[in-house]
Write a structure and sequence with these properties.
This protein is an alpha/beta fold. The protein folds into two domains: 156 residues, Response regulator (Rossmann fold, 3-Layer(aba) Sandwich), CATH 3.40.50.2300; 72 residues, Arc Repressor Mutant, subunit A, CATH 1.10.10.10. It has ten helices and seven strands. The chain has a five-stranded parallel β-sheet with strand order 3-2-4-5-6, with helices on both faces. The protein has a two-stranded antiparallel sheet with strand order 1-7. Helix 3 links the parallel strand 5 and strand 6. The chain starts with a strand and ends with a helix.
Length: 243
């Protein structure tokens, strides 16, 4: 399975930049750090062995994302969990602890929404677990060169999601706190239609619930909410007047 390189300027809005000037000169590219979110010794050993095959040394093994700090190797391999939300949380904590770190995430499941969500959360590289031994080395090499690397078949999935007008309207009303029934009344559609719009929008946003969708939309660093919350004008007043 091939990896695709993405120009740093193509990172989704709000995503941290890779290969910035702040990269620590005190570390060596022959070393990487490892963040394991799984206590299973077998999973940890596989990650270590895969890193060893790249010709690099594991200089530190972390279990807490908050332990990432300046002075560590630039590349941090993150793996050991099937939870996308746990990976996203870990990436955000790593970025807060050390903005110089370039995370490479080992993803257990092939998911279009997951790859985009991880890149938006700060991953500079994504490798599928099934392709770990073959893809990790070129991915780390690309990240060390200041590039973003994802599986080739997910290259276009990291772009900002394109939502239909109805999906934007529906999400905007979700942000306002309306229930599906209330949204259906405002938009003069069946409640089942509202559920369809939300289901399609959730897939595009890489979320699974209304709460997660609202968090993504209101996150200023992602910039996704600009188009959705754009209904707050004449269109929004018209929707409110219809209630």
């Amino acid at each position: 399975m091939a990896q695709a390189l993405i120009e740093d300027s193509e990172r989704p809005a709000g995503g941290p930049r890779a290969g910035g000037k702040g990269a620590s000169a005190a570390t060596t590219e022959a070393e990487v750090a490892l963040l394991s979110l799984d206590p299973d010794p077998a999973a940890l050993e596989r990650l270590k062995q895969a890193i060893s095959r790249t010709g690099r040394k594991v200089s530190a093994v972390l279990t807490d994302p908050g332990d990432a700090a300046a002075g560590m190797p630039r590349v941090l391999v993150v793996g050991g969990t099937r939870s996308i939300s746990a990976l996203r949380d870990a990436l955000q904590r790593v970025r807060r602890s050390s903005g110089e770190t370039s995370p490479v995430v080992v993803l257990s499941n092939d998911s279009r929404a997951a790859v985009r969500a991880l890149v938006e959360s700060g991953a500079d590289g994504v490798v599928f677990e099934s392709d770990l031994e073959r893809a990790l080395e070129p991915t780390i090499r690309a990240v060390e060169a200041g590039q973003i690397a994802v599986p080739a078949e997910r290259r276009r999935d990291v772009d900002r999601p394109t939502l239909s007008r109805r999906e934007k309207q529906t999400l905007g009303l979700v942000v306002m706190g309306l229930s599906n029934r209330e949204i259906a009344s405002r938009l003069f559609v069946a409640e089942s239609t509202v559920k369809c719009h939300l289901s399609a929008a959730f897939v595009k946003l890489g979320v699974r619930s209304r709460h997660e969708a609202v968090s993504v939309i209101l996150d200023p660093e992602r910039g996704i909410g600009l188009g959705i919350l754009g209904i707050s004008g004449a269109e929004r007043r018209a929707l409110e007047a219809s209630s």
